[in-house]
Specification:
Elements: E1 4-8, E2 12-19, E3 22-31, E4 34-41, E5 58-64, E6 67-76, E7 79-88, E8 106-115, E9 124-128, E10 138-141, E11 146-151, E12 155-160, E13 170-179
Antiparallel strand pairs: 1-2, 2-3, 3-4, 4-9, 5-6, 6-7, 7-8, 8-13, 9-12, 10-13, 11-12
Length: 184
């Protein structure tokens, strides 16, 4: 499984790399001629039906006009996950606190999980690899799709809104954003 990269301007990128049976992704910052991990997704294992983060087993680059995005799919247990990741500007005229509102570009993660089972856990989890306060960027959520998020200095997690019932085919969706530090 080859690495996939999504540039976020000249100084930041997301790198997906093979980790066992799935891809882990890392938000990285340029430091001279090398890249430093800021945030790393917290993955589950191939035996977990409800891993800590979605199991991305295939990642592909896709062009939408001049926009490059990454599309991913994966499966664990009886659930199927999909993701679209792109670099976007915040919506024009947005005054909502749940979306990025400053002029910096943001990475949008649009995730879905389709299942008949009652999820034991759903969401996306990250651990911070950078300790320079404020240098690791900023997370935001789309409150229409994302119910809860935990924000600490060394970890971040968000979870989808949606019914928590079993027995019918249900799609859960959550959207969240990461923006580079304000100083860049």
């Amino acid at each position: 499984m080859p690495d996939s990269l999504l540039p976020i301007g000249p100084d930041y990128r997301i790198r997906f790399h093979a980790d066992s049976d799935r891809f882990q992704h890392v938000i990285e910052s340029r430091s001279g001629n090398s890249w430093v991990a800021l945030w790393r997704s917290v993955e589950g294992t191939n035996v977990e039906h409800w891993p800590t983060s979605p199991p991305w087993q295939e990642i592909a680059e896709h062009q939408l006009g001049s926009t490059t995005c990454l599309l991913g799919v994966g499966k664990a247990g009886t659930a199927h996950w999909s993701i679209s990741i792109d670099v976007t500007l915040p919506p024009a005229g947005s005054s909502s606190g749940d979306l990025p509102t400053d002029p910096r570009s943001a990475v949008r993660f649009d995730v879905a999980c389709r299942t008949k089972e009652l999820p034991k856990q759903l969401g996306s989890s990250y651990e911070c690899r950078e300790t320079g306060g404020g240098e690791a960027g900023e997370w935001r959520v789309d409150e229409a799709t994302t119910e809860a998020c935990a924000d600490e200095s060394s970890a971040w997690r968000c979870e989808p809104r949606g019914p928590r019932t079993a027995g019918e085919l249900t799609t859960y969706r959550w959207i969240y954003y990461w923006s580079p530090p304000r100083s860049h």
